[in-house]
Each structure stands twice: as C-alpha cells, then as structure tokens.
Amino acid sequence: MHRLVFVDRLLATLAHLRHGVIHDVSACWFGVDRSTITRAIGPGAASARRAGCTIGPGVRLRPLAEVVDHLGTGEQTGITDGTEIRVRRPAAGREDRDAFISGKNQQNAVKSMVVTDGEGRVLRCSPTEPGSCADIIQDRQSGLVELLAGGPVVETPADAG
Question: Which residues of 119-145 are buried (b: 16+ CB within 10 A; e: fewer)?
C-alpha cells in the first residue's frame, strides 16, 4: 500500500522525469522515506517511457531511433548521462547481487540513461540496469552508439562515465 495519495505519486513522477529530481529530494518534499518514493515513481515512469514524450504539437518520440532522428533533423545538441538511484541491497543468495554495487559511490543502485535536448527537455529515459554498469555500456546496449555512428550528425556531449 502506498503512503502517498495518487496526486503526490503523480507529482513525484513528473518532477523526476521532467526535472531529474532525485528520489532523496522528493522524499524530503513529501515527508516519506526514499524507498517509498522509489516504489511510487516506478509504475508511472514505466508508463511514461512506453508512451514516449511529447516535444511539440503532434510530435511524440518513442523509440531511441526517433529521438536521434529528431535531434539530427533539427540540428540540435543532445545530452546523454546516467543517473543512479539507490536501492535496497538485493536478497542474499541472488546470483547478480554484486552487480548492483555502483563503482562510483560504492552503494547499491540501479542506473538509467537519460537523453535530453539542449534546452533540458527529457527525450528518453532508459529502463534501469544494475548500478555497476558504466554509462558507455548502457549506451551500447541501448543501441545509441550504433544510431549515432550510422545516423544523422548529432552532437552529444557526455561525461567521462
């Protein structure tokens, strides 16, 4: 059972997807634990990913290829970066338990790759992977590297991760 009413879950999800608000901050805003926010945001974020994002009247981007084409057609800059969300340690005996330990902060986490345009609008948020996955590995697994290599010219600054 959620400790947050529907409207609060919706606001937390929208703040997370649109502005990249981390779960710890949302937890402070709503006066609940971070894990409550994580559970509240999960279903809404998954639905939003399936629906894509609206970037203008009649323009909705769903798959990653559409995002890259949109950036290339408009000669826009795309920014890609990974974001980590702390999670509870996976159960003892789980084979991939160590995969959730982030090399960056040595905490149990899952990571998602976010692609934005130059104005900061979130164009795509990938499904989560265990926290030990490097940004470039997630870019390769999602197909972003291949799309950028064989698609339109898109400037995509990224950090060293």
Answer: eeebbbbbebbbbbbebbbbbeebebe
| pLDDT grade for 1, boundaries at 50, 70 and 90 | very low
Q: How far apart are CA 132 and CA 19, in angstroms?
A: 24
Q: At what angle do helices 6-19 and 23-30 cross, to 10 degrees?
A: 150
What 3-state class would DSSP assign to 109? strand
**CA pseudo-torsion sign 2, 107, 138, 24:** positive
Report pTM: 0.55
Say how far apart CA 131 and CA 118 lie, in whole Å: 26
Which residue matches tokens 């919706």?
10
What mean pLDDT comes out for the span 102-123?
Answer: 75
Mean pLDDT of the chain: 75
d(CA 67, CA 144): 10
Say if residues 152 and 72 touch (Cβ distance below 8 Å): yes
- Residue whose C-alpha is closest to residue 117's, from 58, 67, 47, 46: 67
Structural domain boundaries in the chain: 1-51, 53-161
**Sign of CA pseudo-dihedral 57, 70, 160, 132:** positive
